[in-house]
Structures are given as C-alpha cells and as structure tokens.
Amino acid sequence: MIARNGGRFDFSGPLTIATVSEWLRESEALFAEDGVWELNLAGVEEVDSAAVSLLLEWARQAALRGRQLQLRNLPENLQCLLKVYDVQELLPAA
Questions:
Q1: Rg (CA), the chain
Q2: How are beta strands 2-5 and 8-15 bridged, if at all?
Q3: Mean pLDDT score of the chain, rounded to an integer?
Q4: 24, 70, 80, 71: which is closest to 47 by C-alpha?
Q5: Which residues pair with residue 47 across a beta bridge?
Q6: What is the average pLDDT across 25-47?
Q7: Residue 77 in contact with residue 93, Cβ under 8 Å?
Q8: What distance in Å separates the CA atoms of residue 64 and residue 94, rounded to the nearest whole number?
Q9: Strand arrangement, sheet containing 68-72
C-alpha cells in the first residue's frame, strides 16, 4: 500500500474504514523521516470519511515533529469529502 520512491511516499489501494488502521501502521515509518513528507495519493482507489481522519492525523504528526507535509494527487472524491467536512484548509494539498 505504501512504497517509498526517494523522498516521496506513493500510496495505492482503498483508504476506507476497513483499511485505515493498516495504513496508519504502515505510515509510522513516515514519522521517522526528516524534512518534507511528500505523500502521493494518485494510486488511492476508494475513500470514505476515514481517509479524511487519516489525513488530519498525518498533518498533526507532521506539525508535532516540525515537519512539512505535502499531499500530492488527491483523488477527486477525497477532495470532495474534504470540502464537505470543511477541512481542506487544514491540509497542504498541491
């Protein structure tokens, strides 16, 4: 689900309530990295509100560690959920 590509982390597969705990465990390696955490979500196929919660957790972890979080290629349906929950301003999407 998460592949490291240089300084970028590529995510693929569904990000839903059924998979979010696994994604959280896998992403713990991100929090050990210095500098910018660039997360490429182009391969994410399915999302629900759990995806929004996980993105907010990643943003919180980055802030706690003084890191910069960059989100790339957010799926359109995830962008819609961020707008519905009015949290898109809390996340550094590019």
A1: 12
A2: antiparallel
A3: 91
A4: 80
A5: 15
A6: 88
A7: no
A8: 21
A9: 2-5, 8-15, 36-47, 68-72
pLDDT of res. 81 = 96
Measured distance CA(15)–CA(19) in Å, rounded: 6
Structure tokens given for 29: 């390696």
pTM of the entire predicted model: 0.91
| 4-34 tens-digit pLDDT | 888 799 999 999 999 999 999 998 877 777 7
- For the chain, list the domains and their CATH numbers: 2-90 (3.30.750.24)
16's CB contacts (< 8 A; 6+ apart) are 46, 47, 48, 50, 51
Each residue of 65-76: pLDDT tens digit? 998 899 999 999
Token pair, residue 76, equals: 């359109």
